[in-house]
Specification:
Blueprint: H1 3-29, H2 35-65, H3 70-132
Helix pairs in contact: 1-2, 1-3, 2-3
């Protein structure tokens, strides 16, 4: 393998380690009810996925240029794609959590509005009853 590929593989290894770290961090924040925390985590993982994918494509091109076999490149790429797929699944899990939070907030807002309307109606009825007495 060329020195260029070796350097890029080393860089890719670092990016994959950082991605794994971000995924582990996601397990810690998944129970958060703060949209900002979860959104930031999605962004962190997504940015790392994009960087890894771009570097993977660069390395594939160099490997082809270095006359590496298509089978070797395919096997190598599948391993990287597997890691990316894991990260994509984690992003989906966090997005589901965000949707749950939004739905809970929406339901709470509707309930608050319903209670406010009920209170207003009750006050109106009380006022009418007092004026009739």
């Amino acid at each position: 393998m060329s020195k260029i590929v070796d350097k890029k593989l080393l860089k890719l290894t670092g990016k994959i380690k950082a991605l794994n770290f971000a995924i582990k961090k996601s397990d810690e924040v998944i129970d958060s009810t703060k949209n900002e925390v979860l959104t930031r985590q999605i962004s962190s993982i997504t940015n790392r996925i994009q960087a890894i994918y771009a570097l993977k494509e660069e390395i594939e091109e160099i490997k082809f240029t270095d006359n590496d076999s298509e089978e070797n490149i395919q096997n190598w790429a599948e391993e990287i794609e597997s890691r990316i797929s894991e990260a994509d699944n984690k992003v989906s899990e966090i997005r589901e959590r965000l949707n749950e939070i939004k739905e809970t907030e929406r339901a709470a807002a509707e309930e608050t509005e319903r209670v406010a309307i009920d209170i207003k109606r009750q006050k109106q009825l009380n006022s009418r009853n007092k004026s009739l007495s």
